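Suppose you are handed a protein chain with no further information: no name, no annotation, nothing but its sequence. What can you learn? This example shows the usual starting point.
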Amino acid sequence: MFGLKSRTGGILRAGAFAAACLTAFAWSSESEAQTYPSEPLEWTIAFGPGGGNDIMSRTLIDILEKYELYPEDISAENRAGGSGAVGWGYLYSKAGSGYDISTTSGSFITTPLQADTPWGPDKFTPIALLATDDLVLMVNGSSPINTLEEFVAYAKENRITIGGTGTVNVDFIVPKLFSKKAGFEFDYVSFNKFGEMQTALLSDAVDAMVANPGEILGMVESGDMKALAFSGEKTPAELGDIPTLAEAGYPVGVSMPRGLILAPDAPQEAQDWWIGTMKKVVETPEWADYIAKNQLTENIKYGKDFEDFLLNTQAGFAEILREEGVIK
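A reasonable first move is to predict its three-dimensional structure. Written in structure tokens, the prediction is:
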């Protein structure tokens, strides 16, 4: 009897101890979660200043700072090169960090398909897809070409050059699909910095270029560039009376994902904090203004849903690039 009572008491004490340990662990985890964020944030922008990736990153930072959502300093650094390989390669080297972050673009999906990078879209910690972006086909404001029809006619008679950001990117895929449907050939010229591409078009070093609406609206309004066509479903009013590629008979159906990622294997509390914070950011008037001004399509997916979107999109891009013989 004594033995049974003793064993029963031991079991109860062991249970109480285990419960206490679980409570302490839960309290510890909660306390740890509550300590994030407590360090400065390093924000990597994988392209040069002035481009769509740079604009989105700095808009997010401005919102975080205005509403005091991130309590520590945020340091933004443009790490351009290799169609995003330099910047995202840097973020990849910060595995395990909850204080290294970056935004995505089309190159985040296509660069690993073309280059021997140690990382792919599924190697990072996904936070959120926030929007998708489409492209405008542009020529120099002094060009004799005024319409898409004139552009196609000229391109069929002359092998032209078209500039875009990144090597094998949405900027390459969209004009490639367009040219195939329209029946002309061209040489693609890749740039790492939007400013360099803009200079190339204005100096007639390239015949045309593709860029996001938010990057070129000012140049269209000033008359320095002419917009000929839009790759999205509906042409933004600010671009004037130009057709979509689909309306002109050249549907492409490709958009650029604008999202946010942390370094690989970031702590769960960091991912949770950023997902919660982005849910606040997308409700601000500043974010709505950014979406409107840059003619983006709001498309929000968090965490695993964002990662699934990236992998599905990458599979679609890979199929297109294999058909075009760009990758094996």
